[in-house]
Amino acid sequence: MRWLQRIPLTVRFTLMAALHALLAAALAMLLYRFVLHHVAPSVLLAVLLDLPLLAYHVRRMLAPAHSLFRALAGTVASYRDGDFSFGLKWDGGGELRELVDSHNALGDVLREQRTALVQRELLLDTMVQNTPVAMVLVGPSGHIVHGNLAARRMLGEGRRLEGRGFDELLVDAPDALRDAFERGGDAMFTVGDADDEDVYHLSRRQFRLNGRRHELVLLRQLTAELRRQEVQTWKKVIRVISHELNNSLAPIASLAHSGAELLRRGQHEKLPIALATIEERARHLEGFIRDYARFAKLPAPRLEPVEWTRFIAQLRSQVGFRGATEVEGVVRIDVAQMEQALLNLLKNAHESGSAHEDVELVLRRLPDAWRVEVLDRGHGMNEAVLANALLPFYSTKRNGTGLGLALVREIAEAHGGRVSLANREGGGLCVSMTLPA
C-alpha cells in the first residue's frame, strides 16, 4: 500500500470517486439487463459476490486517510479546549505529509505561546499578591472578583474576599474609610488616634472588562513614607537653622570679645563699628526667626472684597514697579497675606539683577480667575532652580532662608490659587499667580 501513499491526495480521491461511479454504473446496468434481457442468474450472482470484495479493498485503501482525518479532528478539538500536548505522525508523503507537518508546527507554536502566557500570569499574580498596596477588583454586581494578600489583611482579617459584596465589606471598615468612599474619587484619610494613626491613600478606577463595567480599588498605606519625609524635612530644617545661627552667633561672640579687648585697651573709637556689626547680625537673626515663624504659623486667609485699584496703590507705596495703572475690578483676598506675597515677589525681582524700571506687575482678567504676573529682566533661573524654587528651605542666595517663594506658594494655594515660574524670552523671569475671581 505504500505505492498508494506516494500518489498525490487529490489524484487518489479523484480515482476513488471515479471507481465508485463505475461500480454504481455497472451494477445499475446489470440489473437493467437482468430485468429486460434476462441475464443469466449466474452472471448476476458472480457480480454481486465480487462487489463486497471490491468495497473492502476500497475501504482498506482509504482507511489510513480516514484515520488521519479523525486524528486531525481530535487534535483540533483538543486545541479548542486549551490542550496543546497532542501531535500527529504520518509516514507517507504528498499533501497529507505537508498537512501533518503544518498541523504539528501549529501545535508547537500554540504550546510555546501557552507556556509563555502561563509564566506571565504567574509573574503578574506573584507581583499583585505580594505588593504592599491593597488591590480589590469589584465586578458589575458589586461583588469582589479578586483581592490580593494586602487587601485580605487590611479589609478581611486575612480571609479571602472573593465573592463577598463590597458594600458589606465596608460595613465593618473604619469610619474614615467609609467616608472616603462616600465622597467618591481619590482621597487621603487617617485611621487611628493621634498616638497611633495610619495615613492611607484611596484610588478608584473604573474600566470595562469583556464589555462589563468593573472597578479597581487601591489602598496604599503612606504612614512610613510620610514619616520618612517628615524626618528628612526636620533634618533639613535643623541644618538650615543651625547654619543661620552659626553665621550670626559666631561673629557676635567674636565681636563681643573684640569689644571687651578694645575697652580694656582704651581704644573707644573702634567700639561703634563693632557694636554696629553686632546689631546688624542680631537683626538678621531676628528677621530669620520671624520669617520661619510666619511660614510655620500662617493662618487661614480671612477673605474680603478688595478693589484692585486701592490694593495696587497701597502696594506701590512700599516698593517700586511699573504697570497695573488702569485696573478695574474686585477680588476676594486676605489683604495682609496677599500684600506680603506680592512684596516678596517684587523684592525678588529687584534683587534679580534687573534694572528697577524693568520690574513690572501685570494684572489680567481671565474668564473665571485673576492672573497677577511679576516680570523682571534679571538673570532668570536654570532648569534645576525652576524645579525647586517653590520648595521650602531651597535658596540660591548666600543669606537666603528659602522661604520667600515657599510662602508665596502657601498664600496662593490657601486662596485657592496657584503659582508658576517661567523664564522670559530675552532674559528675566515671570512669576505668575492665578487667583479665583
From TrEMBL:
User: What name does UniProt use for this protein?
Assistant: histidine kinase
Looking at the Swiss-Prot or TrEMBL record, what is one Pfam family this protein matches? HATPase_c
Protein species of origin: Cognatilysobacter xinjiangensis
Q: Which domain of life is it from?
A: Bacteria
Q: What is its EC number?
A: 2.7.13.3
Keywords, A to Z, come to: ATP-binding, Kinase, Membrane, Nucleotide-binding, Phosphoprotein, Transferase, Transmembrane, Transmembrane helix, Two-component regulatory system
Keyword Membrane carried by entry: yes
Q: Enumerate the SMART domains for this protein.
A: HATPase_c
* Reaction(s) this enzyme catalyzes, per UniProt: ATP + protein L-histidine = ADP + protein N-phospho-L-histidine
Q: Where are the transmembrane segments?
A: 12-32
